[in-house]
Amino acid sequence: MPLDVRVATSMAEAAGLLAADQRTKLLSGGTLVMRDVNEGRLLEGTLLRITDPAFRQMNTSGARIELGAGVTMAMVLNNRDLAYLHAAARAVGGPAIRQMATIGGNLFAGTPYGDFAVALLALDAQVMVQSGYGSARAIAIEEFLNSRERGSSGLVTAVQFARPQNAADFRFYKVSRVKPKGLSVMSIAAHLPNAGGRISQARIAYGAMAPTPVRARGAERALEGKTLDATGIQAAKAAALEGTRPATDAIATEWYRREVLPVHLGRLLTGEGH
Ligand SMILES: Cc1cc2nc3c(=O)[nH]c(=O)nc-3n(C[C@H](O)[C@H](O)[C@H](O)COP(=O)(O)OP(=O)(O)OC[C@H]3O[C@@H](n4cnc5c(N)ncnc54)[C@H](O)[C@@H]3O)c2cc1C
After folding, report:
1. If you measure from the C-alpha of residue 216 to the centroid of ligand 1, how many angstroms do you get, rounded to a whole number?
2. Does 179 lie in the same domain as 201?
3. Phi and psi of 236, rounded to 5°?
4. Which ligand 1 atom lies nearest to the CA of residue 93?
5. Are residues 64 and 120 in the same domain?
6. 143 and 127, same structural domain?
7. Same structural domain for residues 9 and 65?
8. Is the CB of 85 under 6 A from ligand 1?
9. Same domain? 113 vs 41
10. Under 8 Å CB-to-CB from 26, ≥6 apart: which residues?
11. Alpha-carbon span 175 to 198, nearest angstrom
């Protein structure tokens, strides 16, 4: 059977069609799916498009942010309320890719892709997943990424997170060899809320340091109650590698990634990151 294309006009319909046939695949921005088609890895089944406007809806002005899974990186970059996410959106490919690449698709992109998902992990996002015709349920992004590794699926309809109280407390840093469009040697996102300069409940996430984006729990613990001075930053750097299991790929070796992670984490924390 050749490849077929279907259009769902509602997210419920799309979720139902995805659940009914394992060979039905969502075509969101298509930057990865169409590469599989063009390169002959995806030859059969149904590609499903969603025309429901809610899939691309954004609520960005309140304390709770909701971004439809079909929102593209370009849409994020065009939204001033989301300035704290611009570095993460700009880290995804070049301008043509960013016009198409969606937030939902980024949650499924294998390492070293998934730069935007790293930012969402540091923001403690909830991923709204609809399986079949039921209503969408919220899954913590960390659990979602772990279950992705185990191969479970459903339609991601949106992501939600609390807006950082202070945009300057949110930082994103991508390390790549080719600028501006290179793939990640690694990416690091950090949400560093503080009271009187002392860090409280930091969330730090790495991309390309494990098969999925992961939390930097050692560094988070090391920063608790500390100020971002030389002592605090040194403690975070010393604990930077906890929980990481990077791969060797065409971009960098596992050894190199481990060697340079503490250096780049230090740069992000001192504000030298870009
Ligand atoms: C040249 C090039 C450069 C790139 N550079 C980067 C980069 O620097 N950083 C980076 O992070 N990525 C990069 N990517 C990868 C990719 O463009 C992004 O990760 C993008 O966000 C994927 O989104 P998409 O909408 O295009 O996904 P698609 O190709 O539409 O889908 C990808 C997979 O996710 C599934 N999927 C998508 N949306 C949903 C949903 N809502 N619910 C359930 N399943 C879904 C699809 O079925 C498919 O299996 C690059 C890709 C290319 C081709």
Report:
1. 24
2. yes
3. -65, -40
4. 5
5. yes
6. yes
7. no
8. no
9. no
10. 14, 18, 33, 47, 48, 50, 104, 155
11. 27
Output the six-digit token pair for 233.
């930053």
| Same domain as 110, residue 19 | no
Q: Which atom of ligand 1 is nearest to the CA of 34?
A: 29
Domain boundary among 36, 52, 68: 52
Residue 261: how many other CB atoms lie within 10 Å = 24
Q: Tell me which of 12, 32, 52 is where a domain ends.
A: 52
Q: Are residues 180 and 248 in the same domain?
A: yes
Boundaries of domain holding 31: 3-52
Give the number of domains in the chain: 3
- Calculate how far, in angstroms, residue 221's C-alpha sits from the geometric centre of ligand 1: 32
The CATH number that applies at residue 103 is 3.30.465.10
Q: Does ligand 1 lie within 6 Å of residue 33's CB atom?
A: yes
Residue nearest to atom 12 of ligand 1 (CA): 113
Q: How far is the CA of 263 from the centre of ligand 1 (A)?
A: 29
Q: Can you spell out the DSSP letters for 75-115? A: HHHT-GGGGGGHHHHHTSS-HHHHHH-BHHHHHHPPTT--H
From first to last of its 274 residues, the chain has per-residue pLDDT tens of 689 999 999 999 999 999 999 999 999 999 999 999 999 999 999 999 999 999 999 999 999 999 999 999 999 999 999 999 999 999 999 999 999 999 999 999 999 999 999 999 999 999 999 998 778 899 999 999 999 877 667 999 999 999 999 999 999 999 998 887 889 999 999 999 999 999 999 999 999 999 999 999 999 999 999 999 999 999 999 999 999 999 999 999 999 999 999 999 999 999 886 5
Supply the pTM of this predicted model. 0.97
For residue 48, what is the domain's CATH number? 3.30.43
43 and 60 part of one domain: no
Q: How far is CA 186 from CA 1, 42, 217, 232, in A?
A: 40, 28, 17, 22
